[in-house]
What does this fold into?
Amino acid sequence: MLFEGLLNRGSIPVLERVMSFTEARQGVLANNVSNFDTVGYKVKDLSKEVFFATLREAVERRAKGGASAPLAMESTGQLEWDGRGRLRAQASPVANSNILFHDGNNRFVEKQMSEMAQNAMLHNVTAELLRGQYSGLQTAIRGRL
Amino acid sequence: MFGAIDTSTSGLVAQRVRSNTCAMNIAMADAVESADGGPFQRRAVILSEGTGPGDRSGAGVHVSSIMKEPVYRYEYDPSHPYASEEGYVKMPGIDPLVEMVNMMEASRAYEANVAAIDVSKSMLNSALRLLA
It folds into this structure.
C-alpha cells in the first residue's frame, strides 16, 4: 500500500508509460529495419503523436482527480493499456511513408534510422529521469543525505 | 526489448544467407556440371516477413526459400567437350556484377541491423541501470 502510494504519484507513472511506449516502438522500428529487403513489406509504426495526446489527456484527468488518482491511459487502436499500465502494442502500416519501390516495399532507410535514434534518446532520457525520481525516494527513505 | 534484438538478429541471419548465396553464385559462374544435370542454376534468396529463426513473436524476417533459376548463357567454344553441334557451350546465366551488387546490398542491410541492435542494447542498458 505504502509503496504503491509512493510509486504512483508525481511523474513516475508518466515516465513509466513513456518507457513502455518507446520500448514497444523500438521493436516495431527494428522490424522495419530487418525487412528493408523484403518484397512487398510495408513500413509499420506506432504513432507517437497519438501516444503523447493520450498521455496528456490522462495526465490532465489525473490532475483533476487529486494527487493519488491513478494514471489511466485510454486505449487506442494501436496501443492497448490494461488497468495496471501494461502495454500491448499493435503496429499498423504508415500511410504514404515514401515512394513505392518496384519490389512493393516502401522503405525509407534514413527516416527509419533517425526515428530509431530519436526513440532511443527519448527512452534513455526517460530512464535517466526515472532514476532521478527513484534516487530521490531512496534519499527520503534513508532519511539522510 | 529482447524482442527488438531478436527481430534484428533474424535480419542478420537472413542477410548472411543472402550473401552466402551470392558467393555461391559467383563461385559457380562457370560450372557446366551440377547435381541437377546441366549447368549450375543460379540461386535466388526469397526473403519474407515474419518468423525469423528462433523468434516466436512473429516479427522479423526470414528466408522463405532459395529458388533455382534456370537461366543460361551460351558461349561459343567449339573445342569444349560440352559444346553443342553448333559449337556453343551452355553456361550458368550468372552476371558477376549483379551478384556483387546484391552482396553489397546484403552487407549494407546487415550493417543496418547491427546498428539497430546497438540502439536496442543502449536502451536496454539504460533501463537496467534503473536497478542500481
User: Anything to note?
Assistant: Chain A touches chain B at residues 19, 22-23, 26-27, 29-31, 33-41, 109, 113, 116-117, 120, 123-124, 127-128, 130-131, 134 (CB under 8 Å). The helical segments of chain A are 2-7, 12-34, 48-65, 109-142. The first strand of chain A starts at residue 44 and ends at 45. Residues 40 and 105 of chain A are 5 Å apart (CA to CA).
